[in-house]
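Ops channel
N.P.: pipeline sanity check, posting one input/output pair.
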């Protein structure tokens, strides 16, 4: 057997194996990043969809009762982390259960009263800022930049106003 035959039977060199392993690791890390981004977008989509369902339930509640649900935290927003969040909508059978946002954010509700451009405000913080911009997504931004939730400079909040 000559030297040439021995070399051809060796297989991969250590350098070749390291290069292949490095490429596989890079591809896996890229896939994980895109997968996490896709999961965040899915959670945001679920949050905005559920907020629209709550808005419809609020509208039906108002049409039936000629008032909005009680804001149980009158100084501030009322959030799904507090007990009996929007219980009036559940009691009226407009929602099957008290709304609870997926982990990482909370649904908020505040009733600013009748006769203004805000009315009842629903808000949720999103993981992905792309969904919260004004336009086809339907978010309302009633305040100037730097004022509060849903101001025109903050793209992490998705807000729905229900003027009445």
């Amino acid at each position: 057997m000559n030297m040439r035959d021995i070399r051809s039977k060796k297989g991969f060199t250590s350098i070749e194996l390291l290069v292949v392993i490095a490429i596989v690791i890079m591809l896996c890390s890229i896939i994980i990043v895109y997968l996490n981004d896709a999961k965040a977008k899915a959670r945001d989509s679920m949050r905005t969809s559920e907020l629209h369902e709550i808005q419809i339930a609020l509208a039906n509640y108002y049409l039936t009762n000629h008032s909005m649900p009680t804001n149980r935290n009158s100084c501030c927003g009322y959030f799904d982390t507090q007990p009996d969040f929007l219980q009036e909508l559940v009691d009226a059978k407009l929602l099957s259960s008290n709304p609870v946002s997926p982990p990482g954010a909370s649904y908020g509700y505040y009733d600013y009263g009748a006769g203004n451009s805000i009315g009842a405000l629903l808000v949720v913080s999103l993981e992905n800022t792309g969904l919260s911009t004004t336009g086809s997504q339907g978010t309302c931004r009633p305040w100037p930049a730097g004022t509060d939730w849903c101001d025109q400079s903050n793209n992490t909040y998705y807000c729905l106003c229900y003027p009445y």
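N.P.: looks fine end to end. Strands lie at 78-79, 107-111, 120-125, 157-162.
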